[in-house]
Amino acid sequence: MATTARPVIRVLPAPPGLPEPLPEPAVEDLRLETIFGALSGPLRLEIVRRLLLEREEFDHPCGWFGFDRPKSSLTHHFKALREAGVLRQRQYGLERRSEVRIDDLNTRFPGLLDLIASSSESGR
């Protein structure tokens, strides 16, 4: 039986001088059902998958994804992912940039990010 290679999650070092993250749940407060709820939409799942596999910088603004959606809609999706504990967001002037909480999620739910990274493209 042939096995397929698992996608490689891109982990980039944090640059110096990052702004403080916006409010987010502590690692011990992350709940699987809340995370599953946040990931249940195909667009949100695609946001996380792309940040895991295609990131070019430490964190990205919502415009990096190139989704043809209103900014207010995208803001709502990013906020839902942050409040569930999936994403970490920082404010850079007028721009919010996002990254997946890789270490926190791997600590709390081992294998979850590998599953997300292995999912097929959706939500575009």
TrEMBL record:
Chain segments annotated as transmembrane: none
SUPFAM superfamilies per record: Winged helix' DNA-binding domain
Name of the molecule in the record: Bacterial regulatory, arsR family protein
Domain of life: Bacteria
Residues of the HTH arsR-type domain: 34-114
Annotated GO MF terms: DNA-binding transcription factor activity
